[in-house]
Amino acid sequence: MESTEHRTWWSGLLDVAGPLDAIDPTDADLVASRVVLDTDLPGTDPDGPPVTLVVSGGAGQVAGPSALAARRGVPLRAVRVTLRDPADLRGNARRVVTAVEAARVEGALADDVVVAVGMPDAEPGADWCAAVDEIAALELAVSLPVEGADPLRVAAWLEAVLDRETPVTVVGGHPLAVLGAVRRAFDGEGAVEVAGALAGPPTRAVAGMDETSLVGVRRWLRGVETCPDGPAVLAAALADLGVRA
Questions:
Q1: E strand or H helix at 222, and its extent?
Q2: Over the stretch 183-232, which tens digit does the pLDDT of each residue have?
Q3: For residues 10 and 200, is the Cβ–Cβ distance under 8 A?
Q4: Residue 5: inside a domain, yes or no?
Q5: Distance CA 163, CA 180 (A)
Q6: 209 in Cβ contact with 183 (< 8 Å)
Q7: Does the global pTM surpass 0.85?
Q8: Any idea what the CATH number is for the domain that residue 164 is in?
Q9: DSSP SS3 for 84
Q10: 54 within domain boundaries
């Protein structure tokens, strides 16, 4: 698991999709990576921040782009590959797991790169949960499409994933709301409370939580994908909380 020592609970929380030029340098501590599609990898500056690589194809596309990043010296923080077979999520997850194992054995994918498997926006039924079982078996992460999803459904996803002691990344959602929701889900609070954290005022989602609780939840919440204005939004919310100038 990724270390949570010697950092604030908001450090490196965001993965930014889009140009980083407009981000205030004082907010750089909030950003962990830039999100890059595999098709854009050939033009990606290797001297920039670490990359979260989004695989546009299926399981068979994991090794190639990862190896290309290594050859070009592009630092990889994470790779995200989405399940694309809703009729057989478990089988699809198994193929992704096999591809990740092969890429690591071949040296195309370093062991310290987080691999997040994107789940569909669907009820967490038997096949959905069986897919998470496959992901958890290799100690990969699960990526959840939070933006625009029903908060009660997101609460059910979090319960299913965290019950399997599996870390998550999310696409969309206010970072503080997501932090509060993950903390509540991990603590075993009900779906209504978890959904309320997602749907309510973001600062309220973490109000009353101490620093130890918030640092601890970062063990399970590996990142929140956001647009280029995300760092400014998070910085303003942290200032409202009085924890960061």
A1: strand 221-226
A2: 999 999 999 999 999 999 999 999 999 999 999 999 999 999 999 999 99
A3: no
A4: no
A5: 17
A6: yes
A7: yes
A8: 3.20.20
A9: coil
A10: yes
- Phi and psi at residue 186, in whole multiples of 5°? -65, -35
Q: Please indicate, yes or no, if residue 243 is contained in any of the structural domains.
A: no
Q: Please say whether the beta carbons of 4 and 218 come within 8 A.
A: yes
Classify residue 129: in a domain, yes or no: yes
Calpha distance 135→174 (Å, rounded): 25
Q: How far apart are CA 213 and CA 1, in angstroms?
A: 17
User: In sequence order, what are the beta bridge partners of 143?
Assistant: 118, 169
Least confident stretch, 4-13, 22-31, 157-166, 185-194: 4-13
User: CA 228 to CA 225: how far, in whole Å?
Assistant: 10
Counting DSSP H helices and E strands in the chain, the numbers are 9, 8
Long-range contacts at 127-132 (CB < 8 A, ≥ 24 apart): 127/88, 127/89, 127/90, 128/89, 128/160, 129/160, 130/89, 130/90, 130/93, 131/83, 131/89, 131/90, 131/92, 131/93, 132/93, 132/160, 132/161, 132/164, 132/166
Q: What are 79-113's pLDDT values in tens digits?
A: 999 999 999 999 999 999 999 999 999 999 999 99
Amino acid at 237: A
Give the span between the Cα atoms of 39 and 2, in whole angstroms. 28
Domain count, the chain: 1
% residues pLDDT > 70 (the chain): 98
